[in-house]
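Listing S7. Sequence submitted for prediction.
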Amino acid sequence: MMNMLKMLKEALQFGYNTLSGRILFHLGKPKKPLFPLADRLLADAFRLGQLPSPTEKEEMRAVFVVERLRGLGLPYTVDEAGNILARLHSAEEQEDPDNISTEPLLVFTRLVSERWNSLESLGKLELQYARGAGLADALGPAAILSIAEAFTGGRLSLGRDILLFFSALHFDDPYSNVFRLFTSDRRFRPFAAIGVRGFMLGFLTSHTLGSYRVELTLAEEEEKNGNTNAVVSALIDTARHFKKVAESFGDSLHIYFRRIEAISSFNRTPLEGALELDLESTDKGQLEEAVEKIRAIAENTAYRNVKGSFRIVSFIPPGDPSVSEGLSRILLDLMKELKINAEEEAKSDPASFLSAQGIPALSVGIASGREGLGRDTVEIASIEKGRQLLEQLIVQVGNQNG
């Protein structure tokens, strides 16, 4: 625990030093920052992005968030999985502070990032851009911490409680119902929900699409001859069968091969391989049927000297955009006011878990930039507009009557 706190303290100091030196480096003399709140948000993103992820329960990142919440004097809980839930009271003082107000506003993000790198995640700050591996993933938690600061600083005054939820799990983990607390317990069921992610500012996800990601791994039996290319042949044949299954559902089901890989060593033919694909549809029943047919092919098709293992990697259900129409209109109006170009995209989104349960929900990106394999590039100037958009969206939605 002491080592974790020491590393956290070093990351905090690095972030402050990096940002405070940005203008001095480029202009050669001190200058008051144009957008101090956006600078602070970016500083938090840098510090979070430097902490390793994924780790068990995202402990290091969770410690960072908890320390920030504790410093702001805000109550919070951490569950067994490492998820953090903080509560911001409504303007009207609750008679019993242990009771959450009816239908609070939920604001959620994830702590985990699969793109952390021990060197590239240290980050690099330039005059117009911030760069770092997984930096976009860290912007979501940093933005919600900015909301917590706005609340304690008196900039947010709402007619209902706000729940700030930092997930240590992937929202699309098929074996963990991350949103169970908010969909099954009436005390925590939200009036509406806003997901916060790094990219992209201005994009509004319709979240009508549901998705499955599946993976098939193949391995040639060790005692057999390893020069037969059996794994490669099995991968090619299986991919062809998967494609036929998807085509049998017509244009309403989309299939994307994300990865087909065969691994070899010492100049031998591959002994191991993997095939990963995505299935997307607006019809949940169709998605389920397609996955079961693909599972049957993977588990029942036999290849000589080759053994396979099939698993579901992720799942997001199709959402119900009709329940979120009012929320979407508010967001689009705010984008227009802030002169943010709005663009709608059809893709799967964690907000679907909530809209499918009748809870108005959408996700918001708070920065522009590019997500790269090695590192993300964030447009620093866009963060202020993203911060304003999120803050004003929370104010307008949070002050709505049920």
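Caption to Listing S7: primary sequence and predicted structure tokens for the chain studied. The CA atoms of residues 163 and 174 lie 24 Å apart. The longest strand covers residues 210-220.
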